[in-house]
Amino acid sequence: MKRLGGKLGDVRAARLRAQVGDLDRTLVVVESQELLRGQKRGIAVALRKAKAELRKLERPAAASSARHWRSGSRRRCNASTCRTS
Fold first, then answer.
1. Cα–Cα distance between 29 and 57 in angstroms, integer?
2. Which of 12, 14, 36, 63 matches a 20 to 30 Å C-alpha distance to 78?
3. How far apart are CA 23 and CA 6, in angstroms?
């Protein structure tokens, strides 16, 4: 990989040629700390949003589970006290 000149002195790039089927293609690989930092920031933002969404989904599920358990225990209690023997 070669360093680019001028304002992009901290960026390295390489150009490769490859045959894809019948076509001749050029692949350019770029390495830049600035681009890497931006990519990491983007991933961190997406991860925070996904975790927040997961927490939103977990709250109703936990509440629903608790309601279901309470209603079942009430039915069991009512059934046991309503026995006529």
1. 40
2. 63
3. 33
Nearest in space to 28 (alpha carbons), one of 12, 10, 52: 12
The answer to whether 33 and 9 have CB atoms below 8 angstroms apart is no
pTM above 0.70, yes or no: no
Q: What are phi and psi of 69, to 5 degrees?
A: -65, -45
Size of the chain in residues: 85
List the chain pLDDT tens, one digit each, 85 residues: 888 888 888 899 999 999 989 999 999 999 999 999 999 999 999 999 999 999 988 887 777 766 666 666 556 656 556 555 4
- What residue type is assigned to position 54 of the chain? L
